[in-house]
Automatic annotation (TrEMBL):
Belongs to the GTP-binding SRP family. SRP54 subfamily. This is signal-recognition-particle GTPase. Residues 268-281 form the SRP54-type proteins GTP-binding domain. It is an enzyme of class 3 (hydrolase). GO terms for cellular component: signal recognition particle, endoplasmic reticulum targeting. It comes from Paulinella micropora. It catalyses: GTP + H2O = GDP + phosphate + H(+). Its EC number is 3.6.5.4. Keywords: GTP-binding, Hydrolase, Nucleotide-binding, Plastid, Ribonucleoprotein, RNA-binding, Signal recognition particle. GO terms for molecular function: 7S RNA binding; GTP binding; GTPase activity.
């Protein structure tokens, strides 16, 4: 793994080769390159700044020990700090015993919320859970249909009422059904907007207080780049998230959003979406993402 990082950071660490220690003066160029790489990977500027300071602090003064050269050491520090920033290990979903686990899906329109709901349903079903999906997006009839189609495809029941019933009432009714009929997991797909607006946030808060979810998962499109940080911050401040699903990582996105999400909210990314198909969901692993970001 470090071989690959070493290759892409050839240039960054040239100035450190042959040095006895990593010092204030010889590390500058390397840090500049890391900074550029992170910005190119769409990590938000504020996160990059803090990150660079942390790497500088950790790397400076490192003695050459047992054959580990300063350049290798520097790469190792960067890699370790990236992994740490993303939470070190995969954080699994919260699961209740004896009552349904309620998962509220949040996010902007087009982020991949409905798709992620079905992916998650299939994932939980494959672990033996009895899953209910709930269509609480009353503004786009197509969203309700989309969830029904996906439900059929993965053989998971979908609960919907009508567009004339408020989302929080639909959500509350689904919990009652879930408890009565012995469902293990209830995944509530909510309405998104093209951008953050007050009505959407207020609705999320109402649904949240109606169902007391175990998880509020923010679905973030990795292709939106630097904006991911701001979206995450707003959702977290106004609704409070317990985790995130980063979608569309099968595309060109370099995954920098992964660093921003954790840093601005403290909430772990729990899954990544890697395709349009319902099977294209993977638990998130910080080490793999760190390698991807560093190229
Ligand atoms: P929503 O508005 O947030 O519910 O978004 P949708 O679930 O309807 O997804 C929007 C579009 O993104 C659809 O065309 C999905 O097929 C696509 N999509 C969702 N997740 C992924 C992913 O992980 N990879 C790719 N390539 N496309 C995705």
């Amino acid at each position: 793994m470090f071989d690959q990082l070493s290759a892409s950071f050839e240039d960054a660490v040239k100035g450190l080769r042959g040095q006895a220690t990593i010092s204030d003066t010889n590390v500058d160029n390397a840090l500049r390159q890391v900074r550029r790489a992170l910005l190119e990977a769409d990590v938000s500027l504020s996160v990059v700044k803090k990150f660079i300071e942390e790497v500088r602090r950790k790397a400076i003064g490192t003695e050459v020990v047992r054959g580990i050269k300063p350049d290798q050491k520097f790469i190792q520090v960067v890699y370790e700090q990236l992994v740490k920033l993303m939470g070190t290990e995969n954080t699994p979903l919260i699961r209740n015993n004896g009552k349904p686990t309620v998962i509220l899906m949040a996010g902007l329109q087009g982020a991949g919320k409905t798709t992620a709901s079905a992916k998650l349903a299939l994932y939980l079903k494959s672990q033996g859970a009895k899953v209910l999906m709930v269509a609480a997006d009353i503004y786009r009839p197509a969203a309700i249909d989309q969830l029904h189609v996906l439900g059929k495809q993965i053989d998971v029941e979908v609960f919907s009422i009508s567009k004339d019933v408020q989302p929080e009432e639909i959500a509350a009714a689904s919990i009652q059904k879930g408890c009565e009929e012995g469902f293990d997991c209830i995944i509530i797909d909510t309405a998104g907007r093209l951008q953050i607006d007050t009505a959407m946030m207020e609705e999320m808060v109402r649904i949240k207080s109606a169902v007391s979810p175990d998880e509020i998962l923010l679905v973030v499109d990795s292709m939106i780049g630097q904006e991911a940080a701001e979206i995450t911050r707003t959702f977290h401040e106004q609704v409070g998230i317990t985790g995130a699903i980063l979608t569309k990582l099968d595309g060109d996105a370099r995954g920098g959003a992964a660093l921003s999400i954790r840093k601005v909210s403290g909430a772990p990314i729990k899954f990544i979406g890697v395709g349009e198909k319902v099977e294209a969901l993977q638990p998130f692993h910080p080490e793999r993402m760190a390698s991807r970001i560093l190229g």
